[in-house]
Design a protein that fits this description.
Layout lengths: L1 H6 L4 H20 L3 H14 L31 H21 L1 H38 L6 H45 L3 H43 L3 H12 L3 H29 L4 H16 L4 H49 L7
Helix pairs in contact: 2-11, 3-5, 3-11, 5-6, 6-7, 7-8, 7-11, 9-11
């Protein structure tokens, strides 16, 4: 009982002083430094902390069919009764081509899937390395050189990636296991028997509860990873296993402080969420310009009656590049605006972990 009471000991000064340290570090890094550091840290934050983006959807339906005379008297160049047969003819031609080239299509799909997986893992790996670069940017007295810092944390970012993959597989496995009895429960309900109906409904409720538990477990694991494991790995320059051992030692006798840390973080997060939401809403004004430009280009293509194939080949590539670059610039500008929020919360966790265990102190 004494050990339980000791582990639940709560000292609010540890948490409040961590908040003071976080604000002091944020003020020193951003508001008392040069503007170049702000833009550099926003770039690091975009890749390693929190990238925010937006999307715009346009629902434009250009005229279909040949672009010749106005056969229906409306000047559109097509008649409604032609759309059905033409669409069926195109669909039939596509199906015939797919059937004749099925082996090549399957190979193409597999190739695209493998490429997507490789590129996706590479992107996630880079983000995990930049996660440590962002921590170093907040904790270090001097600005880190991105290239040198990437080399220092390359291996650590890989171990963090592997840990996150394992962390995500556990809830996924629980969900897959939960789907097996759910199928049986549906069969009991479909049987029409009163006892089967009761058992089936009860089983489904239990399965849904298990799925919710798996998702909560995933959220908890991610929160503990970001707030405790990453700072410990950075402070001790170690891997995941050793990092968790340092975290476990820091938690001894401090469970109450950890709970208070998250309660205050939730409260601060609500306030930060309001600021972030307002900034995101205001920043959507920036999307109006590219949306209008894209709409104008599509309208010109339709008005000039340029064939769809020619339009795609001519404007498709530049449009995709423009969308990717525009989204990246938008995300970066949003990180510039919201950088104090990211720096503050990172400094908050670094300071708190350091106050729990002096060997993990970085700020």
């Amino acid at each position: 009982m004494h050990d339980v009471m000791r582990s639940a000991h709560m000292d609010s000064s540890t948490v409040t002083e961590s908040v003071e340290d976080a604000w002091s570090r944020t003020r020193t890094l951003l508001f008392e430094g040069d503007i170049g550091r702000w833009f550099k840290y926003a770039f690091i934050a975009m890749l390693g902390a929190a990238t925010t983006g937006g999307s715009t959807s346009l629902n434009l339906s250009p005229p279909m069919g040949p672009g010749g005379g106005a056969e229906d008297g409306t000047g559109s160049g097509w008649s409604p009764e032609q759309v059905g047969p033409e669409a069926l003819g195109v669909l039939k031609a596509i199906l015939e081509w797919l059937t004749a080239n099925l082996a090549y299509v399957v190979m193409l799909v597999i190739g695209i899937a493998v490429l997507w997986l490789v590129v996706g893992l590479a992107v996630v790996y880079v983000r995990n390395v930049f996660r440590f670069i962002f921590v170093e940017a907040v904790a270090a007295r001097l600005e880190p050189a991105i290239g040198e810092s990437f080399g220092r944390h390359a291996r650590r970012g890989l171990t963090l990636l592997l840990w996150k993959l394992i962390l995500g597989l556990v809830p996924l496995l629980l969900i897959v296991i939960a789907l097996v009895p759910m199928i049986g429960s549906i069969g009991l309900i479909a049987s029409g028997d009163e006892a089967g109906l009761t058992a089936g409904i009860g089983s489904i409720v239990a399965v849904v509860g298990l799925i919710v538990f798996a998702l909560l477990l995933l959220l908890l694991g991610r929160a503990l990873t970001e707030d405790f494991l990453v700072p410990a790995m950075y402070a001790r320059r170690c891997g995941v296993v050793e990092g968790w051992s340092h975290v476990a030692r820091a938690w001894q006798g401090s469970l109450g402080n950890v709970i208070l840390f998250y309660l205050l973080k939730i409260a601060l997060g609500i306030a930060a969420g309001i600021v972030t939401g307002i900034a995101g809403l205001v920043s959507t004004v920036l999307l109006v310009i590219p949306a209008i430009s894209l709409g104008a280009i599509v309208a010109l293509i339709v008005r000039a009656e340029i064939p769809a194939t020619t339009a795609v080949l001519t404007f498709g590539g530049p449009a995709i590049v423009a969308i990717i670059l525009g989204g990246t610039v938008y995300a970066y500008l949003l990180n510039v605006v919201l950088l104090p929020v990211g720096v503050f919360f990172q400094a908050y966790s670094l300071s708190f972990v350091g106050r729990l265990d002096a060997s993990l102190r970085t700020i």
